[in-house]
Amino acid sequence: MSFKVCFIGAGSLGFTRKLVRDLLIVPEFRDMEIAFNDINADYLEKARAVIQRDIDHNGLNIKIFSSTDRREALKGAKYIFNCVRIGGLDVARSDIEIPLRYGITQCYGDTLAAGGIIYAQRGIIAMLDFCKDIREVCTPDCLMLNYANPNAMITWAMNEYGKVRTVGLCHGVMYGRWQISQALGIPENELDIICAGINHMTWYIRVNHKGKDMIPEMLEAFEKHPRFSKGEKLRIDMMRRLGYYVTESNCHASEYNAWYRKRPGDFNNWMNCPPDCEIESEDTGAYLLDLYEARDQFEAEYKNLENEPPFEFVPAERGLEHGSYIVEGLETGRLYRGYFNVINHGCISNLPEDAIVEVPGYIDANGINIPRVGDLPDGCAAACLSNITVQRMAVKAAVTGDDKLLRQAMMFDPLTGAMLTPPEIWQMVDEMLVEQKEWLPQYQKAIAEAEYRLANEPRITPKKCVAVPIEHPATLDDYKAYREKTRAKKAEEERKKAEEAKNSTGLDELLNQTGFKDHSQQSE
To answer: pTM for this one?
Structure first.
């Protein structure tokens, strides 16, 4: 089968490399064309070189075309994988740091809350440019597979305003399914699960095992699990209140509601994990710090990749990301069931028609087929609706450049509204617009007005940031220092524990060699 696949943001080497491997494991795809695009020429060439080596090692006659010219890379493509982070990591710092000055803590800041909303503004305006190119140079039936965040808002904008058929993809459902199987002590392949909601707030509304409804047993199973009871306290509490388990981690899930981040002390109770649960206790800016570490590691280790074995394109190595299976189903007709972010169109009957929902679907030669889920449980639907309202406003604001609508989206955001007053929100938005003006061309007039206000009008003094594990944090660097200090402390504790165990073992061996018997535990 000969068709063209284009990766936008291909310089994200680890992710792109695995997706290419997954595609080329499909026997019928070994004649397809592959194009890479990225704005970073250095990362683009490094990704091309590593992945071309994988292809050559597996004996395939495919040469990757790479270009920083997006239109050239897209020309004739039938499938587009969107893996971009608009603005890069340094711009994303302000998604975290500016709200932090106002008392809003975010671990991810990539989906909703103040960081996710402003991230959508720069992402959507760029995506509309992508869509123009796609409409003009790709095949008429092309499909965009969107991995970029904020996934729901990007997917919404590309479908409704960019007029490009787009499916949003995420792997949250797969990990939660594994957790449920572990908590219940049932193999994954024996569980029949239906998960539905919106991206990063998807609910496991059906969990059956051989015809038995397991949902009534899930809360107790998670509360008793030695790891999850300590590492997923917030998600367990949401299940306790709403009746259903949610897909995302504690830090993720807490950003999309008004309940867990607004009082000193409460937040740490939900997030801090004891050492024996094997989950690192981290929060504000942790995801961005992880990305910085990954980038530094990539720079340091890239030169060693040539000494590591190439990927083997064999079925056992195929990953679980949905993208390759979607292309396989559409091209070969093989049936695939997965979870996709699509326009609702009545699939979830108590959520809006135009919303992007994350639901089960089937792929084959007939296309993408989405069954009707019906109503979500009332509490789950209410939580989703609070986010959908904000998403719709934020998407429209990004497309139109209406800064008043952007500010209203911030006001109705559950976390931002729980933490700030309207005047504080207005001033925070001014700061975010000015800080990111290079990436927000649709807000030029609003940015000029914001710059004037910030320079000439009385300023509101933001509240001190509370409910965080360090004193008076101001920037991501504060959290980086805290992370390093915490890791060093943990490493020292583990070293001492290992040393004590070693010394104890040595004493036992010595006593055994001398024939000494410990009678202290014997009864009289």
So the answer is: 0.89
